[in-house]
Amino acid sequence: MEKRSHPMWRYVVCVLLVALVFALYVLRLYDWQILNGSTWLATADHSTQSTVAIPAARGEILDVNGEPLAVNRTGYAVVLNWPYMQQGSDAETTRQENETIRQIVTLLDSYGEEWTDELPILVQDGAYVFAEGEDREIETLKGRDYANVNSYATADLCMEALIERYGVEGYTMEETRDIVSVRYNMVKSQFGSSNPYTVAPDVSLEIVTILSENSQSLPGMSIEVTTAREYENTTLLPHIVGRMGKFSSMEDWEQNYRDQGYAFDDSIGISGVESAFESTLRGEDGEKVVETTSMGSVAGETITKAPQEGDTVYLTIDKRIQEVVNASLEQNILGTRENAERLNATNAGGRSSGHGEDCYTGGAVVMDVKTGAVLAAGTYPTYDLVQAQEDASYYASLANDTQGTPLVNKAFIGTFTPGSCFKPAVAAAALEEGVITNSTVITCNHYYTRFTDGSTTNAPTCLGWHGAITLRSAIADSCNVFFFETGYRLGITAMNLYCQRFGLGVKAGIEIGESAGVLAGPGSRDVWYQGETLNAAIGQSDNAFTTLQLCTYAATLANNGNRPRATIVSKITDYTRETVKDEIELEIVDNVGVSDENLAYVKAGMEAVITEGSAKSTLGNYPVKIAGKTGTAERSSGSDNVTFIGYAPADDPQIAFAVVLDHGSSGTYCQNVVRDILDAYFYDAEVGDDGVIRTESERRQAAAQNGDAASQNGGTSSAAQA
Ligand SMILES: [Zn+2]
User: How would DSSP label each residue in 263-289?
Assistant: First the structure.
């Protein structure tokens, strides 16, 4: 009742507001008619107002500690503004416009500065010719809005039409071609009174000075302060940071972006975080109103809306750990191939191939088990983000590289046959379903003969002869026979159910593009035969997962069966980084439904992998207690995959990790990557200038040795002087 007793108040406020607005109008009128009456009178006749966009700075992308990944550098753009370009007559406007363009382009060329040049016609041996591989652009050029010629018209004919259309007269062939190129692109970009045209998006301060000095003879030319993307390390995270680019076509822009206020020549994020967080990073352009008289001169300029900078995105990636992962993947993939050459040459194991000579790609993911935050996501081979954005032939070479497929993110998109690192999930499911217990004994005589009437012919095999073993040893020594039998008892339906809860064959929930992978089972092929369940149980058959899924699965084991949603963004702040707008919190998306007791049996097996099993020789002496599982997966052709999943410390997990070397053959190199990951997380390892990965204490040792060497050198030289 109390609240309803204030209608009078509201009324008074309303009246005051209306009065205030009215007063503003009166003031404005006073301004127009009395104070600036004469000025406004001069512009009143046919004066036009143009609303021009003021671009907003794009938000930046940083690592978890605020280290720069994609940040802004202040740059300078050369821009043409239509309201300032008009002359006394149309003919004079055209002549001056072309001359302005010629002067700008000539100057930029002489200083080796780049300008936007997309005309698919070149001057070659005194003739106009079409540029090669530009069929789409040539088709556009011949269209009604541009040359307006037949589809079979020659380059010469196109130029003739464009020269006439743009009124380009009295220049050399090269000059004519360049003027036409700029004019062509201006039309494409819908240059007009409200839409300035950027001739060169990023020029040096030196050229800015020269252009500014000559601005009297370049009507309409202005220098705009812009922000250009800058990357400290262009190969660190290209797949995750993502590329910036232009709209793929006019139709794409018209249908999907124009209504959102994008201009056709705007840049947008086209992959990775740049694309996924486009609306967050973009900000909001401002507006200014430019008033021009009927004679074409500018009467005034008013900023009506200030630009609003985009927000800054902090990733969960730790740059230092990421650098270690990248370097380690490269070293160990190259190491695999070198080792394979040696083994092939000596016919090791009775074969001269299949030792990893075909290992060209790999992925590694490190995750905080408690939050699902991805601390590092390595892809080998990587590529140069800036070159891919600027150099079309480099980009084409990346796209055509079918061996390394460098454009494919091997952490989130590429999928790999997991092999035996799939077994802990099967074990957890089998224990929970009661088809085995922790003390169930299964005898491995190398062959699994249940489906071959006891015959070893065509029977699936184990890599070893393990005899009578229980779960712990079966995980530690990766016994296939134990898991063939376990898979048979469990059945594919229950196996699939638990594996999905572990995140296998299910998207991990990361904010940028990822694959769902394939979980082998009735859903992965038309007819599922029971025999295939055996292969599925050891991580073969159709099973294929991303490195991220394998890591999420390891994190779920470490996290007592709670699967965290994977995330790559830690927080979003305003542009100044002062106000936090959004912070990522732990989200548990599933629980595997396996008792702590049963999970503990599986984990004990994974600890035994390190202390007595398949990873003892590589990780057994590591100072932090690890739980893990090795995998070797047969491929339809070429060397086996090697995989590893794990978490550490085993008794109080902080991180989970997964490493895959496609056709890697030797588990040693895979586990070397694991060791480097652990060194980075637990012992502050970093990559030195010499490319060597060293822990903090190793760095101290190296520094001490260098110090000794230096002081010895110093001693020698001073002795010599003495
Ligand atoms: Zn066995």
Answer: -TT--EE-SHHHHHTHHHHH-B-EEEE
Show which of 269, 300, 315 is a domain's final residue. Answer: 315
Output the CA 292–ligand 1 centroid distance in Å. Answer: 86
Q: What is the CA(554)–ligand 1 centre distance, in A?
A: 23
Residue 645 lies in a domain: yes
Domain co-membership, 389 together with 497: yes
| 93 touches 218 (CB < 8 A) | no
- Identify the three-state secondary structure at position 180: helix
* 349 Ramachandran zone, left/alpha/beta (phi>0; psi -120 to 50): left
Amino acid 233 reads: N
57 in the same domain as 206: yes
Spatial distance between the Cα atoms of 654 and 555, rounded to a whole number of angstroms: 9
Same domain for 356 and 463, yes or no, is yes
Residue 470 in 3-state DSSP?
coil
* CATH number of 182's domain: 3.90.1310.10
Query: H helices within 491-578, ranges in order?
Result: 492-501, 530-537, 547-558
Q: Which residue has the tokens 């542009």?
A: 575
**Is residue 715 in a domain?**
no
Residue 716 pLDDT grade (very low, low, confident, very high; cuts 50, 70, 90): very low
Alpha helices in 615-722 (DSSP H): 616-619, 667-683, 696-721
Q: Cα angle vertex 665, ends 661, 666, to 5°?
A: 90
CB–CB of 657/647 below 8 Å? yes
The span from the CA of 550 to the CA of 557, in Å, is 11
To the nearest whole number, what is the mean pLDDT of the chain? 90
**Ligand 1 centre distance from Cα of residue 468 (Å):** 9
Q: 358 and 284 in one domain?
A: no
Same-domain pairing of 303 and 351: no
Query: 487 C-alpha vs ligand 1 centroid, how far in Å?
Result: 14
Section 356-374 average pLDDT: 97
> How far does residue 540's CA lie from ligand 1's centre (Å)?
16
Report which residue type is found at 32: W
51 CA from centroid of ligand 1 (Å):
76
Same domain, 305 and 360: no
- Non-local (6+) Cβ contacts of 614 within 8 A are 476, 477, 478, 630, 667
State the average pLDDT over residues 329-353: 96
pTM (predicted TM-score): 0.81
- From residue 63, give the alpha-carbon distance in Å to each of 43, 281, 364, 432, 686: 53, 15, 18, 40, 16
Q: What is the pLDDT of residue 295?
A: 61
pLDDT digits (tens, 9 = 90+) for 40-63: 444 445 567 777 778 888 999 999
580-619 confidence digits (pLDDT tens): 999 988 899 999 999 999 999 999 999 999 999 999 999 9
Q: Provide φ and ψ at 650, rounded to 5°.
A: -60, -35
Whether 95 and 347 have beta carbons less than 8 Å apart is answered as no
Q: How many domains does the chain have?
A: 2
Q: What is the CATH number of the domain that holds 426?
A: 3.40.710.10
* C-alpha of residue 445 to centroid of ligand 1, in Å: 7
Q: How many CB atoms lie within 10 A of CB 458?
A: 9
Do 580 and 443 have their domain in common? yes
Given 315, 339, 357, which residue is the final one in a domain? 315
pLDDT at 16 over 80: no
209 and 357 part of one domain: no
CB atoms within 10 A of CB 354: 18
Q: Output the CA–CA distances (angstroms, integers) from residue 242 to 168, 258, 513, in the order listed.
A: 40, 22, 11
102 has pLDDT over 60: yes
Task: Give the integer Cα–Cα distance in Å for 270 and 162.
Answer: 32
What is the distance in A from the centroid of ligand 1 to the CA of 465? Answer: 5
Q: Which domain holds residue 568?
A: 319-687
pLDDT tens for each residue of 621-677: 999 999 999 999 999 999 999 999 999 999 999 999 999 999 999 999 999 999 999
